[in-house]
Amino acid sequence: MDERESRLVELVLQGDSDAFGPLVTPYRKALLTMAYRLCRNWEDAGELSQETLLRAYRYLRSYDPRRSFRNWMFQILVNVWRSSGKNRPDVAALREWATTHPAEGPEEEHDRSEIRSQLMDCLDGLSRREREVFLLRDIEDMSILETAQALSISPLSVRVRLSLARKKIRERAKEKFPHLLEDRR
Amino acid sequence: MKRERKGREYRPLLDNLRAIARSEEKDWEEEDWRRALRRATAAEPGELRPGWKPLAGWVWAYAVVIVILLGAAAVATSSFFRTAGPTIMARVEPARNGSRGPAGGAVSLALQNQLSATFVSAESGLRVYWYFDKEFDWKEEKR
Q: Testing the interface with B: which of A58, A78, A136, A166 to mutate, by most B Cβ within 10 A?
């Protein structure tokens, strides 16, 4: 946690609620997107993110400043998601996204929807637990320990679930999107 | 070898998936974001643990009843064993003959030529001492 964040946390805890906005704003995109990847539905993602913000503010005193604030927010989000039961796929989500964020041209429109569906298609093959681990560890680039802490499981469980998730993703990509296995650098 | 091959295979896939993930990030509508912040900060910060909730009254009532029952069971059990158990306790040990060991206080077993058996009545507290000498002749003493 950087100095700016710790100062903002202190201000919020001293009663300055206006300091909460600058504290969480850097993570607003990441929070909403992560919520969407977990629940696969933008509407539910908005609700989960709102609940996450509410809990983060309410329980800020329990936040350990030695930890990353971003990871702490993700931990709350995963807990909110687990307790909400919002785990249904939404096939209309891409269309919804496309209408609220129109692309600049037909080619970009095609590329974007193609790309998005590929990632979500890969995630669809994972169980709830595997998806949590894969998203936090491989997509959000958390360490094994941070992932374990965020999910309240052991590092060994993280490794096991991650291994299963990677295997499934690799198989799915091989079957449906073999070009993703190519090194494009 | 197989593991290395899988790792080599997975690395470009992971890079591509991360690139996809970055490209599909979605931001809040400004109005939605402001509303979410307003809603979040309407509460008071300060609770210590997210998992902690005040326990309902019926939980406390049940806890009190359970403690009372356990206490009653403990009392009933101990009184039952006191009445059903032996009323006389016996202890057999070398009789003290007055000599003390070098450590001060320990009875010297080498000099021991008497054995005593002490019987204590649990009800009256009466103590009966039996002393045996080397020849197993005994004498009795009551206190």
A: A58
Which pair of tokens denotes residue A10? 């202190």
CATH class of A125-176: mainly alpha
Contact A118 B20 (CB under 8 A): yes
Quick: pLDDT tens for B27-36: 888 898 999 8
Q: Identify which of A32, A54, A182 has the shortest CB distance to residue B28.
A: A32
Global pTM value:
0.60
pLDDT tens sequence across A157-166: 999 999 999 9
d(C-alpha A155, C-alpha A136), whole Å:
13
Assigned token pair, B103: 């450590």
- Compute CA distances A39 → A7, A117, B113, B119, whole Å: 33, 15, 87, 77
Q: Where in chain A is the domain with CATH 1.10.1740.10?
A: 1-90
Measured CA distances, A18 to A15, A31, A64, A106, B132 (Å): 9, 20, 21, 42, 91
| 3 state DSSP class of B117 | strand
* Total residues belonging to chain A: 185
**Which of B101, B133, B99 lies closest to B116, judged by CA?**
B133
What does the alpha-carbon distance between residue B59 and residue B56 come to, in Å, rounded to a whole number?
5
Is B37's CB within 8 Å of A138's CB?
no
**Paired residues of B93 in beta bridges:** B116
Residue among A95, A122, B18 at smallest CA distance from A103: A95
ipTM of the complex: 0.72
Give the integer Cα–Cα distance in Å for B2 and B17. Answer: 22
Q: What is the pLDDT of residues B80-135, one digit of tens each?
A: 666 555 566 677 776 665 544 444 444 445 456 777 888 888 777 888 888 877 77
Q: What is the CATH number of domain A1-90?
A: 1.10.1740.10
CA A170 to CA B17: how far, in whole Å? 11
